[in-house]
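1st attempt posting a full record on here, be nice pls
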Amino acid sequence: MNQPDQSDHRPAPGKNKLRRREFIRVATTGLSGLWLAGALSPDANADPNAPRDLWIVPHDALSPAEQAFALTLQGLANRVRPQIWMKAGSTYQIIEDQLKQEGVRFHHANSIWELLAQFRDVVKGAFLCRINAPSLNVATSLCGLHDAVALDESLMSRAQTAKLNIIADVREWDERKAFDRYRNRFARGILVEQTPQGAGPGFLRDYAVAHNAFTYYTTDDGFRTEAARALGPDALAYGWGPSEYPWVKSLSLANATGVGSDWSLNLSALQHLTAGPIIRPKRPVPPKEDGVRYVAFVMTDGDNVQWLCGSFVGNERYWSSPLRGQFPFTWEVSPMLTQVAPRVLKYLYFTAKDTEGFVTGAGVPGYTYIHFQPDPRSIALQAEPFLRRADLPFVGILNANEGHLNETIPLLELPYVEAVLYKDYAPYNRHQGKVFWHQGKPCISFRYMLWQGLMTPQQVAQGVSQMPLKPLSDENSYALVTVHAWSFGDIGGPLEAVRRTIALLPPNTHVVTADQLVTLMKSNLSRLHMS
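the predicted structure (as tokens):
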């Protein structure tokens, strides 16, 4: 069948500007209070690195040049504890409300120069650069190494008034020059790919500076692989590249993984905020029975840290949907949240409905294609601590089309992992529900997908009607349905598409969460696949 282009599973910034940039404030003080009452560990505020005072800056009120300046300053100030916070909505507002209730004192900065005056002691100077040009990434890379801020040339006169020392003029530099000259000084295990154009100056740079990370943006896949290898092993690449598949493939070839975060704010602060134990809500497993079939719907794009930390919670198509709780549903989430924003993951678990489950999204620890990894065992071992901290033994991955289910053996051999949920790059359900078993653990490929233009609710329901009713003996009695996060906007979003699909399902079909489906399948069938 001819299918629409499926070359990028995330919305393009230009086509979905509001979806990715519009932070909708929906959190209330009462909701934050509910979270505080039951979720924070008793000793959370005893953390010596807990924030005491936060200087807050309204992100959207700043120009791109000012945002780049403020974020690089934020990265310096937040190295040990949160001291600067970029004000935004949705999940960011929820965390801000939590901090206020914990007694953190907030101070509002009216300009970046006021912010500089407050934190002058951590700034030794500036790198002169141009936004919308590679030199901004060069400056970002060097700021962490030299305790400096990125200064766009449009701010030069004001910087002179503030007596800000110019360490170097890098306006004619590119990322290759910075990499070749400083590669031995950049942090290992991390790199940041962030466009210097458009909105790119205003996101993620605080985290790069806080971690002395090499920052670049390239269409040269070979250079990306080279940098990821040099800064490895098993590097984590934050941000996003020009195109999804080449970005992930070139990282995978270096045994690296990607963390979708190019529109992230406040990661340098969020990483320090303690959350106590993060415990995924457990759902009771339905009793064994025959004569039925089981279906689980799983939302895509949980690898997108930027989305989960940003507009996800406040958007009525997702976490604020009035349909949540009306039927079993599973969300992909990134285990990387335990490192960059543990409170966000804990908040999602704490506010989940009784009908909701969680799995990891698009690979672990970040987005990667197992098929291209030189050492998949090494990445699996790297991922396990993240999975444990996130309480996520159900691992969702997305592999290259050339890949096979048995490539997940390194993951299935991790003691903590219970199962792998397998998607192909295009289409997601390329393997049509096939199951690979290893030592009693299943790797289950998605059988169907709800994706506007590819598969409708009617087509999914028709496919389910052809499934057998033998869950005690036939693995084809189980089906995973991937739900495309960016589809069905014209009818209210993907959850509405799920509701309509469920209404069309044939009798004797039980809708469960993905973790329930896996547990049922293992309980009923693993005895047949223990070798």
